[in-house]
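Q: I have 398 residues here and want to know how they pack in 3D. Can you give me a structure?
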Amino acid sequence: MRIVFIDMHCNVLLTRPYSQIRKGTNSLPPLFKHKFILDYAHNNNIELYNFLSGEDSTLRGYRHFKKYDKYKRIAHWEHNYVMKHSFSSELRIQAITDPQYIRDDDIVIGYIERPHHLNVMSHLNGHHVLMGNHFISINHPIDLKQSKIEAFINEIDLSKNAFVNKYFNLEGVKQIVCPYVYGDRFKNLNQERKNKMLAIGTLSTCSGHPGYRLYRSFFNTEWIQPMRKEIFDQADKYKEEIDSYISYIYEDKKVINKSDGWIEKKIKALYNKYNGFTQVKYASFNMVKKFNEYKFFACPEELVGMPGIGFVEGMACGTAYIGVEGDIYESLGLKAGEHYIGYDGTFEDLIDKIHYCQQHPNEIEKIAQTGMNYVRKHFNANIVASNLFKELAILLNE
């Protein structure tokens, strides 16, 4: 089996792109949510390739070079630079620029949040697979069948998701669940814990973004994680119940006012370009230690119905998770009251559940232990990657 990713050198889920690398230590740590897929492929002698489409880059001025047909050399340089700084020398990922080098039996993987991937894949050989993950920036309905997508991969089962079923044609497309995994650093440190809820996660917004048309239309809101916004706004009123470490995605940006002078506006714009998304506060603490300081936590979901990776990481640390009860976690085999504490998605019920947790420490400790055992058994990198590649292998034999 050979796996071909589209422009993976620009994908924060797989690599640390050039735009992040050049910011140095002041930028957020590598996301690498899907690096475990690459590690598994490497350890099992599965060949990995990066198809350089010429349509994506984090280099400034890249579009200008395309006019002079120099982009292939620039893209190769960027690919090599990113691979060198993202992975060890043992994890070899070869670059491809000529579509003819992609075989009919290759697995070609694109990501839905990179709009050009569907168009690029439509001109390539191989079995086409689309990674979901983020649907908020989608501005037009997508017919996956017409786009010749054979498999659609997401962290949860989306067969009942109202938003996805309205805007995506999933007919005849194989649905594959690839849940988030916890890293080796996430562990139970067996220490005394505070009897309060830790709230974590990045608070994102559509505000100021020209896209997100379908998301705005369907949910009629600018906030992508409304419960994170609620906690962000009200945590100070509930200091006995909540310690909030929720980070607003634009918290480090300078506000450009109409009354600002021309020079001041330029200085703020320049600052925002290089420092506006660093989330210094969120990157300033050790997440493992923070999880281990609390008996229970929340990492509120996206309104579209997707969980945050934090729920797996926190549960792996032996911290009881409070999440919305329903399809999101049931599709992963998690049961409310057994593996996590379920609530109805309202702030009022969240506070009630926090009070219940504070008054029933033994029950919550048992749920935390059961949840941790389940996560370690089902959401470890080797198990999830193994199951994913088994599903991909089926495509080759159908």
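Q: Anything worth noting?
A: The chain has a mean pLDDT of 88. The two ends are 14 Å apart (CA to CA).
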